[in-house]
Design brief:
Rossmann fold; 14 helices; DNA polymerase, domain 1; 14% strand; binds S-adenosylmethionine
Amino acid sequence: MQPRHIPVFKEHAVNALNIAANDLVVDATYGGGGHARAILARLGDGGRLLVIDRDVSAIERARRALHDDARVEIIHAPFSRLRQLLSERDLSGRVAGMLFDFGVSSQQLDTPARGFSFRASGPLDMRMDQSRGQTAAQWLAQVTEQELCSALRDFGEERFARRIARAIKHAMQPSAAQPPLTTAVLAELVAKAVPSREPGKHPATRSFQAIRIAVNHELGEIREVLPQALIGLAPHGRLVILSFHSLEDRLVKRFFREQARGDPYPPELPICEAMKNPTLKLVGKPRCAGVQDIADNRRARSAVMRVAEKIGGDQTATTERARP
Ligand SMILES: C[S@@+](CC[C@H](N)C(=O)[O-])C[C@H]1O[C@@H](n2cnc3c(N)ncnc32)[C@H](O)[C@@H]1O
């Protein structure tokens, strides 16, 4: 049976998009389509939904599920191309709501052939977009030990990054009598290199996260898309973002804060708030999972949802500061 993805904060996220029947909405991370289906339930016949995913399997799923819905356009692309995708359709500045649900889907994580999980043996792939780019095995073969160590530390916050990087690079030497790297072999290598264990956490969790983030340029994608999302939104349009670890959330939090604060005038200048030209208004507090959310869906345990609304008015100034 195909793994199923349970959307995190589905109702909250779709409520936060504040959708009206004839709106144009973008779901930039289709995955299993749970959020997209909930968005479509709120759109009327005059509404329109663009769904984006960089994963070919997710796009095939979207085509199977939504091919007969005239309101939907399905786009296979990384979301860092959002600005181009919108301007090609003459939709820049016209989107009423955008949803980003970062990270991997259960379909990706729970399909051993995709190579994301240390829980089942599979090829060491980890690409969200299997049609291009390096697999994790190719990436590991090509990085230096120092680069691997930095990735494990920066993207996995792994305390034992140096030991793990050394063990992996050693095992990949042609002279090493090591079987070809699969997810299971890598997980075993990492487990052996780590001297102490965090309770309840597989010792390879952080390394797998770090390698996945590096292979898919995940943080670069987020950095690139945030200003593009702002440009794409209509005045009063909503941006709803779900992050699953602190590195993702930090980028979103910083971007929202800077855009809500406006132009950085020196504090001694007598500038009122409106003159600072803020481009986003924060909506509510960040939402973290409660006990019931986690009971309903284990994936929610590390989720943070942030919502912001584009401030209407002088679109020229907005566009200038947000330009990537
Ligand atoms: C957590 S899942 C989304 C789940 C979805 N909201 C649902 O309800 O089923 C994340 C999806 O976003 C996609 N994705 C992640 N980063 C992406 C990027 N930079 N560009 C496009 N798609 C991306 C992944 O391929 C994956 O299918």
